[in-house]
Amino acid sequence: MQHPIHSDLVPVSRTEGTTVIASLRGEIDLHNSSELRDTVLSLLTPDVPPKLVLNLGEVPYMDSSGIAVLVEALGRVRRAGGKICLTNLQPRVQSILEIARLNTLFILTSDEQAALAVP
After folding, report:
1. How far apart are CA 44 and CA 51, in angstroms?
2. pTM assigned to the model
3. Range of the domain at 22
């Protein structure tokens, strides 16, 4: 099921089974992270999905404010017994996650199909 287009940062989101998949686009920083927060959190209400897949293939840069949005979403999904998969990470974004040791909290996959296969 296709969700309505939410924003320039999250132009496409859809549901496959009980998994919500959202594609993010563009640099994510202090200037637009509140828009990302609103959009991502809207995907989690009223029912938090058991699995949220965020495709970051078109995100070349993300600062700490964007990372904070991901961590907040992770907290909500985990409290509901779910998980978040981050997929198609660009090297710069993956490096930021590794430096902050957040690569151990999120499930990182090479593509959406691998994320869908995560139990």
Report:
1. 10
2. 0.91
3. 12-117
